[in-house]
Amino acid sequence: MAIYTNNSEFGGAFGDRLSTLLKEANSVTIASGYTSAVILQQYQEYIAKIVNDGGNFTLLVGMGIFEGLSRHTYNKLGELNSLILSANPECGGVRFVWNPPPFHGKIYRIKYQNELLYFAGSSNFSKRGLFENLEFTCKITDLSTINQTEAYINWLLTDNISVNFDKCESFPIVESVKANRKKINFQKVETQPIINSTIPYVDISLARVDRQQRSNLNAFFGKGRWNRKTGIVIPRDWFEVEVIVDIATTKNPVYPKGNFIAYTDDGLVFPCRTQGDYHKNFRSRDDLKILGHWIKGKLQQKGVLELFEPVTSQTLEEYGKNYIRMYKLSDSDYYLEF
Fold first, then answer.
1. Confidence (pLDDT) at 162
2. What would the pLDDT profile of 24-37 be if each residue is shown by its tens digit?
3. pLDDT above 90 for 176
4. How far is the C-alpha of 136 from the C-alpha of 263, rounded, in Å?
């Protein structure tokens, strides 16, 4: 069994072997957690030859929707997808895994001289993965494993798991998300409410966050919005938040029911709402990102949360608080502390 480690004493660079195969390949499917603009440019000529000769090329990117991509890499993927589909509309082109969990594997299926070759291991379709990092990738030769790998690849390429580049709207571009954070125009209160010991309050616990890895504060990592008729997928925004409150808390008479105005401890004001069974869904009204910008913005300012990271119990522990305190000013006005 051949191995490739990017070390000359242990099989050499997998990128060298891949380059040799791509020059004469008839059909290629690459499923990789990550990729890079550099490697896309490096292999563009080989890819163009494959599809112009009537072959198929599919690149599945497994982590992009869940961790974001730089604009440069995203644009390069778009160019590659257009190149592939304009030459051969039957090709898979560039696809993104959109239905969680994200795909972190690295699999290469290459039809070369009428033989199907399969490779799997740790080498991403990137310059580092193929040439620079110490990796471990090997050729699959066992027939049973080949059959399982073939079935797995085909499953990954179904629309329920991944979609073509052109079918994914509002893609999380790192630079855009950072810029949009600065564009949020929160209304600021002219006079901050005075909070004292006589004002009733209720605490909204965030302690269950580790059991809510794809919802609540971590809705970004959940399933995107998929239109079955058009095939369009819209990934969740990283700032999208909807806090699911436990029933015991919703029964507290202080807890808000329906629409209310939230005044925050840092001088902001925005409309909120509780809805659903027992009014357990606590969210910002009209735009779920507003509440998320406030909560995650505070975590970012404290230095305990980076863009596209999940909020965990450790995040909240480092922040110093795992609840939002809601002071009831009136039936329609609440003061939020976090």
1. 98
2. 999 999 999 999 99
3. no
4. 54
pTM here is 0.89
Greater pLDDT, 175 or 58 = 58
Whether the Cβ atoms of residue 248 and residue 278 lie closer than 8 Å to each other: no
Domains of the chain: 3-167 (3.30.870.10), 177-337 (no CATH)
